[in-house]
Amino acid sequence: MLRGNDGKSGASRIWEHILSTEVEHIESDGDPFGLLKPVGTPIEYYARLKKYADGKHTSQALKNLHNFIFDLESGLVECKSSEKAINCREEGNKYFKLGDYETASGCYKKGILIAEIDSKEAALLHGNLSACFLHQSKWTACIWHVCLALRLHDDSQSSIGKRLQLRLQQACTKVGREDLTVLNECYEWVTKLCEDAAPLLDSEERYGFVNLPVPKFGRSKKLKALSSRLVVHESPKQGRYVVSEGYFKAGDVLASEPSGGWGKGEIQCGAPAADELAVASCILLPFQRHIRCLACHNQLESVGYVCPDCNGAAFCGPPSRCFSRHFRNGQFIMPQWHKDECRYAFLLNSIGLGHLCYRLGTLRGRHLLQPDREVSLDSLVDNYEHFPSHLEYGLTGWLCGLLMGRIGLPNCGDWCFRMLHRLQCNVHAITQINTAVSRDYGLVGVAQERIGGGLFPTASFINHACEPNIAYQFTNGFIIIRCIKDLSPGDEILTCYGPHFRHNPDMGARKRALLEQYFFECSCVHCDKTQQLTTLSPEENDRWCKLVEKICSSKTPLSTLPSLFKRLKRLSDPTATMTPKPSYGEIADETAFGLFKEAMTTSSSEARKVALYLTTESCDFVRTRFGADSIEYAWELVKLATVTTAVGESNNDGVKATLQRIMRSYYGEREANRILDLLSDVF
């Protein structure tokens, strides 16, 4: 839960180190408060922990924490860094020279986030970012960042200033505004731009700027998130679970819900709109905060504003509707929930789920987050009695309560302590589908990327199976749940908490993973005792290994690969419980990629032909193993289409139709079209 990572995640590890130090200190002191033993009620345990943490028996590291928090509040801990900003700009310049404007713009945006406000370095970063947008024909974004760069440059007659002026004229001409010759007029014009809202479909409702699908058969009167043909049952063994009372077809929407849950009654005057509150109730991972807007979670094109007091908050620029919502009378209005945590961002980034707990606690404390009693955050299962230790949760809850008390929300530590247990069992990873293009070979890949975390109370009622019948989509703080199989009355709605039986065929490993994190023993059809295990015999496995070794050998002639793979295929059964590692599909895919690289550098027609053959084999393997309607097959089709396009063999119309059908079932019409737009160079 509380593991830090100072690599890709960009998170501080300070709290992880403090926790480690505190555990050692308590152990060496003989644990006089009984904190290492999970005994007593939650109230009793937290009372002991708070007495310890507030007293004189803690380690010096925990004592020093109070001074560190004061330094954060006083601005004595610098979060902006000119040196790091310069490094970002120089890295961006390397990609810019290679013509990789997308990667370059990401470097410049990261630099803008950490550069000192109104500095020369910030001006250079805005200017370089505008150059990327000029090359990408993103004219409005180019105009915006040129304006910001010029407003920060002291001398518009310098060589840099003149280049920026010329770039501004070019971009203004492209949008038909050659008349905008004065910087202030141009700046005022671009700040007032606002894109049109996406048209509302018959099957959608609008919440603020978000068009949200309505569940099939309309919303339940009892639980707004669910379809009226879904019902929640409860039993001692299963807890609360969701069952269908109607007939649904694959692709139908079963539920849609904002993070934090649907509010009760009418929204109070001055409270944030439903879409604003949905985003506020979940968090972005630290390494996403220069890529996505903190206020709407959309990918940033232009950067409208960055927080001057931290390096973790960037917001949309014009012409986005999000920018128009927050930019008023020439000033950017910072969301209150960010103000509540801004100074503590460095510390909050290090506490994992504790950051989400703090966010939910502040929204609750300010009476903004008030879901219906049936789906109250406090009503979610916490499995408290099953946790082997409460110390990390207790100290993190105490820290959240300490910080909340310093912003005027006292006595929240015990609530945070319990909420951390609930988050461990109920939190959802928020994901987004993105594409990536190989810089050297032009191959397009599709990946489901984790961008944040949120708590969706009604969705948490849905139980696990190692073969799910639903899929999740996330958009701007909302979750949308669709069935990926036809459902009949009496069918239970089932999601997969992580270990899918096809991806993780080892039943014992799946059951252990679920028991460790969620404290239940899976009894789905793929985890019962009667499961028939199918795998290669020792003799077959020996033949398999020898064939794989020969295929991977650099001495193997290219012309013999197809026959070797045919022999390997005869040993392979995609539907087997335990496929060899690596599988037939993985070997075909890896070999195809190696041949594709060779074909791109040597122009070998034979290598291209075999690469396409093996990519097709990999695709067929995935279809047989996961199903012709599976998302795994859809992404394999993308790979096949991009290789087909690269080698110039044929068109991809049939592949596109199949891909679109699967994506509509999993993600709906809007998201399917967005993904296909990202793949426009392939189809």
From TrEMBL:
Key words, A-Z: Cytoplasm, Methyltransferase, Nucleus, S-adenosyl-L-methionine, Transferase
GO cellular component: cytoplasm; nucleus
Signal peptide: none
Pfam families assigned: SET (PF00856)
Keyword Nucleus: yes
Catalyzed reaction equations: L-lysyl-[protein] + S-adenosyl-L-methionine = N(6)-methyl-L-lysyl-[protein] + S-adenosyl-L-homocysteine + H(+)
Protein's UniProt name: SET and MYND domain containing protein 4
